Structures are given as structure tokens and as C-alpha cells.
């Protein structure tokens, strides 16, 4: 599939996807009629207010939640089969490193579970740690690192095995703006180098516009997609692109989309 | 070393109170004796007498200290009067009981966390088991086991295990369940099975809980072993020492045995504390 970048079979495809939770107060429509196609190598951001189902959708892709309506395929398979085939790496809101493992030990965790050979584990750990700019920190324990470094280690952990999808659920949400800018810039470089397909949940408009090739704007009650914006920004993006006219226009459109979804409350 | 002064102050207060209580309680006997002999006794004489009685109601601290010293160091450790000998008898039953109890506790906790039926059924029984006074159940354990030819250390260890498994079950269930949803989800994204989840996540995460439980359970084991020595009329062990002391009104002997038990318990808990610190340090969990 590698030679047919772009127009090949979609990596993630949702049709009429819905997820309804049955609660004591009646059904809650976390997702309703979600149609979305994500192609190989795309960087897709999901943005919207809380309760819009952006995280739920990401969790559906990861087979951590199970849709109640519609169809969803990941790499052409059902999400559960894709999970079993270890098709994606997932980065959570918190780094969630094991305090009893060193940074290298944490990155090694998925490799141990997936049965990679000892030698292979060592090489991969070294490679991904250098990919996230953490060379030489392998022997440190998580508490010895700053929050930003811990989150980088958790990204390394998700990259350590050969999944070509990377799902990220507000990975930088808990970090301050300066660290966040740095990590955003590094994430783009990493994406360019690894050619992975990335699904990225955020509630920051600048972050979504800066990172994505496609921005999915969502709104709550029921959780649904209100706009899908194909970014016209070049793939090469220095931080100061955020002052360009194009950037501001896209950000404006995202904001409009968010406001439209909230029309009934504004 | 900041804690030396407060600890010393508390100790001093206890000793002073103890001496006061010893004088008050033991003077009753002195006055009785004097009245019987139709003698007048001065307060100084009473004071002196309350410190040296052979069977005082409350032995003075120095009498207990002397008894303890003689029991521990005053004779060969193989002597029947040696507290080292009796201490060892109790300690060996304690350690075997602690081992059985801890092993059983961990197994039950693993079962409770992984099996819904066990989750629903075991915990109420475990709690019920602890509401029965150990003094009531200990003689039955000894009698039943003796009838099948098991005597000596093992029945005591069983009683000890009966007390010590409970804190381990409670602590380990809590510990094995301590990983949050996100950590469990992370392992699901790796398609990790129960086995991997247990070894890589649940077990290491439960270690701080385990050590906290082990300290409680070690103390409970010692109590269990001592109680196990009471009903059988055992001839060896700290429990036997307590019992014979109370038969013959040897209060000094009772207090010396009690202090031996306390020292033993403190020592065992300190040992667990040292292992805990070393283990958690190795695991990078100590700050």
C-alpha cells in the first residue's frame, strides 16, 4: 500500500456511525451519523467542545468503545481486528508511564508484550527515544522528568512498534503553552519522517490548524461532525506560519464551524 | 535525630507513671502484711518494699527490665527459662503462619480480582472469618489437628495464618485494582492478555499496598502464634510463658514475656520495612 499514497484505500472509514450510551437518565447520543474518510498519511484533528464525541470517536477507532450504529473500518478491518493486529499506537491525555519502570523500560513495554526479540527491543527503544529527542534519558525514572518530557516518552512508547496509525487524545492538553508549541513543532517533524496517519483530538483551534491536513469540527448533543476543513497550508510549517493570512482564515472557519454547532445556545 | 527528644520524653513520662502506679498498687499488699504483723510502716519503707516484691501486682520497670535481661542473656539459650528459647519457638510458628497466610492472601486476592464469582463470594466469608474471636477458634483448631496426628508447630502456624491472611487479601485486592482505566486501556491497545496485564501492570502496581498489609499481617501472625500456645497447655513459647506466669502469679515473668513479644513484633515489622524500602527503591518508586 505504501506506493499509492493519498488516493489509496482509506485507512479509516466511518459511515453513519453512531454510539448511544444507555444511562439511568435515558439514552445519551455520544455520536450520531458520523461519516468520515481518512486517507493514508493524513494528519486529522478533531476539535470541538467537551461532550462533542471527539474522544469517543477516537476510542471507537481504537476499539476501546463499540459503536451501536453504522460501520467503521480501520485498515480495511473491523476496529477490534485492527486492535488485535496492533494497527495503531495510542497516546493518552496523561503520559501514564509506569513509575516502576525506567523511561527505556516504559518504551519497551509494548515490545515485551508483543514478543519482540531482546536485541530488536534495544534497537527500537534507542531509535524512538532519539526520534522524540530523549537520547540519554533511557535510564531515568519518570518522576525525574518534566511533564513535557514524560509526554514525549509516551509518544515514543506509541511509536516503538510498527503501527502506521497514531491516535492522540489531547496529548498536550495538560502542558503549558511554551512546551506545547515545541512539542507541536516536533510532532510535525516526526509525522513527516515517519509518514504515519495521525488522528489528533484537541480543543485548541491554533493547535488544530497548525498541525492538520484535515480538521474535523464537531459539536455536542448529539455528538456529530459539523464541518470538515481540508487545510491549504503547506506541509512544511514553521511556527510563524500562525501569523499568515491563510492560517488566520482557516482558524476563522474552524471558529465559525464551532459556533454553528452551538447555534442553539449562543 | 530530631525525633529522639520527643520519643525520649514520652518514654520518660511512661516510666514515671508506671513507677507511680507500681507504688500505689503494690502498697496494698505491703500495708496488709504490716497490719497482719501489727507493725507500723513509714512511707519510705512502703516505697522501698513496693519496688522489690516477688509477686507484685504491677512489677516496677526495673524489675521487668531485670527479668527481661536475665531471660534473654542470663542463661543458655537452650534453657527452658530462656526467653530466647521461648521466643524462637513462637517466632518459628509465627513465620510459618505468616508465610502460609501471606501466600493464601495473595492467591485469594488474585482470584477475587480475576474471577467474578470469587469476587462476589470470597470477601464476605473472609470478613466473617475475622469476626469470630480467635480465642474461640484456636482450641478447636488444635484439637482437630491433634486428632489427625498434627501437633507442635503446625497448628499454631494455622491459627497464625488464620489471622494474617486477611490484611493481605484486603490490601492486595485494593492494590491489584489500583491501576486506573487509562492504564488498562493502554494495555488493551497493545492487545495484551490477562497474564501480561497481571505481570506487567497489576502486580507491580500492588507492591506498595502489599508491604503495608504485610506489616499488619506480621503483627497479627505473632498474636496468632501466642494465642495458639495458650489452649494446648504448651510447654514452650511465649504464650506458654504467659500462661505459666499467670498460673503461679509470676507477674514479672508475664511482663518479661510480653516485652519479648513486643520486641519481636517491632523487630519483624522493622525487617519488613527495610525490605520494603529496598524493593521500592529498586523499582524506582521510592522518592
TrEMBL record, chain A:
The keyword tRNA-binding does not apply. InterPro entries: AAA+_ATPase (IPR003593), ABC_transporter-like_ATP-bd (IPR003439), ABC_transporter-like_CS (IPR017871), ABC_transporter_ATP-bind (IPR050166), P-loop_NTPase (IPR027417). One of its GO terms (molecular function) is ATP binding. The keyword Nucleotide-binding applies. Keywords: ATP-binding, Nucleotide-binding, Transport. SUPFAM superfamilies: P-loop containing nucleoside triphosphate hydrolases (SSF52540). CDD domains: ABC_NrtD_SsuB_transporters. Residues 12-245 form the ABC transporter domain. PANTHER family: ALIPHATIC SULFONATES IMPORT ATP-BINDING PROTEIN SSUB, TAURINE IMPORT ATP-BINDING PROTEIN-RELATED. Belongs to the ABC transporter superfamily. This is ABC transporter ATP-binding protein. It comes from Albidovulum sediminicola.
From TrEMBL, chain B:
It is found in: Cell membrane. It is a multi-pass membrane protein. It comes from the Bacteria. InterPro entries: MetI-like (IPR000515), MetI-like_sf (IPR035906). The keyword Transmembrane helix applies. The keyword Glycosyltransferase does not apply. Residues 83-276 form the ABC transmembrane type-1 domain. It holds the Pfam family BPD_transp_1. Belongs to the binding-protein-dependent transport system permease family. This is ABC transporter permease. It comes from Albidovulum sediminicola.
